[in-house]
Design brief:
Bound molecules: flavin-adenine dinucleotide
Mean pLDDT: 88
Radius of gyration: 25 Å
Number of strands: 17
Shape: globular
Largest sheet: 9 strands, mixed
Helix content: 25-40%
Number of helices: 16
Oligomer: single chain
Length: about 475
């Protein structure tokens, strides 16, 4: 067997260093069953949040688990906004903020509504008082830390290992074929992200349709720590998360984001793939326009761009969710389409689904039955969790928002800016005349009439079980 002695971060050649290998192997695995004939209880494909969470849960239950990832270092190529959410992360890594490479604890959330030149910004600030909601992180550092924790729990980790296909014999999934060699297990958890080759080969999913994914672009911009804290009015270690609508993104199903890291800013946007094609838009040009907007450019002024990246996200519609289990296989995280795009939640659903898939695998292994009927427990767990509850609630929201996108991303920012402009301009026009003019504009533009159905729709979705 090619040697994945990853607890030492090395790949060793067994012929040359057989003796050393034997010592290392026994030291690491002395209390555990051997990974004989490249066989483990469960193979987890993909070391993102879903895969790590699954692997750790399995190792803690005493199962042998191989976690494989194509990257040289976990997280090297993984892209997100972003912030991770404390609740689901702490279920896997309790009190992780004490040792993990988190950037800042999010204590302020802002929503920017942009017109072409102006903006209205709403902000909500809270004091954490030791109970954290979310943290900004950089995936390259964060994912690497998570994998290190998984290895400490006894997970075999194979980096630089591209899974080429599932090994299937007579319809039975036996394991995986990598560019090096084959591995075998009773159960596969596919956590290989939005493009999941494995889900497609298993016949669980086809490619997502253009209308079911957004293309996201992002830059990390270096800003000295003190300057960043002054600009955002932040205490040390506190952070700010911003959502941005309108401006260069008006009249399209698109949203911008901005997160403060320790000494950098992550800024980017996501646009529905069908919108990009329809309007023949280039996402990087939109990002450049966003960065030049008069309300955004002062936030990133004099910064040095450290990194560019692009990535797809499933739009997270309940109706687009594929079958997520079959004989000997389960899908977790983005591979299954578990993203709440409206609330910028993905890592939390990935971690939770990874955990639920792993719990199901433990049940199946103890029962000695890896059939679809046993693994259907996974779907039951998903249905009882926030994952399917929330995605079901939002199912019609995305088409509804798309239908009303001009109102939300163009009319509302304009009216909000005009309202505050009217409120704060001291000039020779009598206030009564101003208010009348504004109200008549609101009525003529249909602002109120359009707000009512939007409000009713949102209320109805929240109240409906
Ligand atoms: C721009 C952007 C902003 C986002 N912002 C946020 C945010 O602020 N908060 C949030 O919670 N979520 C955010 N998300 C969503 C979030 O990033 C995803 O939902 C989450 O990363 C999904 O985790 P995952 O483990 O399912 O997949 P991924 O994180 O994509 O991990 C998949 C892993 O599988 C590996 N892999 C893939 N194919 C193979 C193969 N064939 N062989 C071996 N390995 C393979 C990859 O290398 C990767 O490590 C954002 C996403 C994007 C793109």
């Amino acid at each position: 067997m090619r040697e994945y002695i990853d607890n030492f971060g090395q790949i060793l050649n067994v012929k040359k260093v057989a003796a050393l290998y034997s010592i290392l192997y026994n030291a690491v695995w002395q209390n555990r069953k051997k990974m004989s004939k490249n066989r483990v209880d469960v193979i987890v494909i993909g070391a993102g949040p879903a895969g790590v969470s699954a692997a750790v849960t399995l190792a803690r239950a005493g199962k042998e688990v191989l976690l494989v990832d194509r990257s040289d270092n976990a997280g090297d190529k993984n892209v997100f906004g972003g912030c991770i959410y404390a609740k689901q992360t702490a279920e896997i890594f309790p009190s992780f903020w004490e040792t993990a490479p988190v950037e800042r604890s999010v204590t302020e959330n802002r929503i920017y509504m942009l017109t072409d030149y102006d903006s209205t910004m709403f902000a909500h600030r809270y004091s954490s008082k030791g109970s954290y909601k979310a943290f900004t992180v950089l995936r390259s550092r964060w994912d690497r830390w998570c994998v290190e924790q998984a290895k400490k729990e006894g997970v075999y980790f194979a980096p630089k290992t591209l899974v080429k296909e599932l090994l299937i014999d007579n319809g039975k999934i036996l394991g995986i074929k990598t560019q090096y060699e084959n591995f075998y297990s009773d159960i596969i958890i596919a956590a290989d992200g939005v493009n999941s080759l494995i889900a497609k080969q298993a016949g669980l999913r086809k490619n997502f349709k253009d209308s079911d994914v957004t293309l996201n672009v992002k830059e990390v911009i270096k800003i000295p720590r003190e300057r960043l804290e002054d600009r955002f009015n932040l205490d040390e270690n506190d952070g700010c998360a911003c959502k941005i609508i309108g401006g260069p993104l008006k009249n399209m199903f698109a949203m911008g984001f901005l997160y403060t890291n320790s000494d950098s800013i992550s800024i980017g946007l996501g646009v529905s793939l069908d919108e990009l094609k329809k309007h023949n838009l280039k996402p990087y040009e939109l990002l450049d326009e966003l960065k030049e907007h008069p309300s955004i450019s002062p936030l990133i002024k004099d910064g040095e761009v450290l990194e560019y990246s692009a990535h797809m996200i499933p739009e997270g519609r309940y109706d687009s969710i594929p079958k997520v289990y079959d004989n000997r296989i389960m899908l977790a995280g983005d591979a299954a389409g578990f993203v709440d795009n409206l609330h910028f939640e993905g890592t939390n659903l990935a971690m939770l689904s990874g955990k639920l898939a792993a719990e199901t695998a433990v049940f199946a292994i103890d029962k000695g039955d890896f059939s679809a009927s046993t693994l259907s427990l996974y779907y039951k767990k998903l249905k009882d969790s926030i994952i399917l509850k929330d995605l079901k609630t939002h199912n019609n929201t995305i088409p509804f928002l798309k239908h009303n996108i001009n109102t939300i991303t163009s009319l509302y920012p304009e009216l909000a800016c005009e309202f505050f402009d009217m409120l704060h301009s001291a000039d020779e026009i009598p206030k009564r005349t101003k208010y009348r003019k504004f109200l008549s504009k609101v009525i003529k533009s249909g602002g109120i009439q359009k707000s009512l159905p939007l409000g009713m729709f949102a209320l109805e979705k929240c109240l409906k079980k």
